[in-house]
TrEMBL record:
<dbReference type="InterPro" id="IPR016689">
    <property type="entry name" value="ESCRT-2_cplx_Snf8"/>
</dbReference>
<comment type="similarity">
    <text>Belongs to the SNF8 family.</text>
</comment>
<dbReference type="GO" id="GO:0000814">
    <property type="term" value="C:ESCRT II complex"/>
</dbReference>
<dbReference type="InterPro" id="IPR036388">
    <property type="entry name" value="WH-like_DNA-bd_sf"/>
</dbReference>
<protein>
    <submittedName>
        <fullName>Putative Vacuolar protein sorting-associated protein 22</fullName>
    </submittedName>
</protein>
<dbReference type="InterPro" id="IPR036390">
    <property type="entry name" value="WH_DNA-bd_sf"/>
</dbReference>
<dbReference type="InterPro" id="IPR040608">
    <property type="entry name" value="Snf8/Vps36"/>
</dbReference>
<dbReference type="GO" id="GO:0043328">
    <property type="term" value="P:protein transport to vacuole involved in ubiquitin-dependent protein catabolic process via the multivesicular body sorting pathway"/>
</dbReference>
<dbReference type="Pfam" id="PF04157">
    <property type="entry name" value="EAP30"/>
</dbReference>
Length: 219
């Protein structure tokens, strides 16, 4: 039964090779079928799936593009980038809109774990963030970023300490660490004279209106 399923899967791969390589919905379906048969099509470059599809090349190219975008934006976002923003930038590089899915990014990063850069995926609140820096978020960092999400991408020490019931030393330490790592930036002209701390990797700026909003997650 397993052999017959693998034969049918190979036939599906051959008949829909172009669609699998070009369309996320076909790739997702292919991976679902592989998972149901306990097959990892990316396990070996010499596997039958590599020979039929060349799918390993697809994820290798995608991995290179993930690294490229993360490195070139690191000075702007401190090494964290929202998944939707990453996909948009990669699709611009490829000049192929709607060609990459969140699942593609997650699979590519899973295969990148051997890299010293330690690329990882962080689910914080309603957003999925890709982290490309070795520093680790502690629980206070995560809670502060999630709090900023609820406020439109920023926080102030006074309001965050009050609403989260944190001591001033705790909010100072967490916010200073986010600043140090380049994950947050300061706006000293905030409302009511309060200093605003923007979490760079979770926001986007409308170039027409200048309005800042939280990036919407695609996953």
């Amino acid at each position: 039964m397993i052999d017959s399923f693998q034969t049918a899967l190979a036939k599906f791969a051959q008949e829909h090779k172009n669609e699998i390589l070009k369309k996320p919905e076909y790739r997702n379906k292919f991976h679902e079928l592989c998972a149901s048969a306990n097959i990892d099509p990316l396990l070996s470059s010499s596997s039958i799936w590599e020979k039929i599809l060349g799918i390993g090349d697809f994820y290798y190219e995608l991995s290179v593009q993930i690294v490229d975008v993360c490195i070139t934006t690191r000075s702007q976002n401190g090494g964290i980038i929202e998944l939707s923003d990453l996909i948009t930038r990669i699709e611009a590089i490829r000049r192929q809109p709607k060609s990459i899915s969140p699942d593609d990014i997650k699979r590519a990063i899973e295969k990148m774990k051997i890299l010293k850069g330690k690329y990882s995926i962080q689910k914080i609140g309603q957003q999925t963030l890709i982290q490309s820096v070795p520093s680790e978020f502690n629980n206070d960092h995560l809670r502060l970023i999630q709090y900023a999400q609820s406020k439109g991408g920023y926080f102030t020490k006074v309001l965050a300490a009050t609403e989260m019931r944190w001591a001033s030393q705790r909010i100072d330490k967490a916010s200073d660490e986010l600043l140090r790592d380049g994950i947050a930036m300061i706006d000293e002209q905030g409302a009511d004279g309060l200093t605003m701390f923007w979490i760079i990797g979770i926001i986007q700026v409308d170039t027409t209106t200048g309005r800042i909003s939280v990036v919407q997650d695609r996953s």
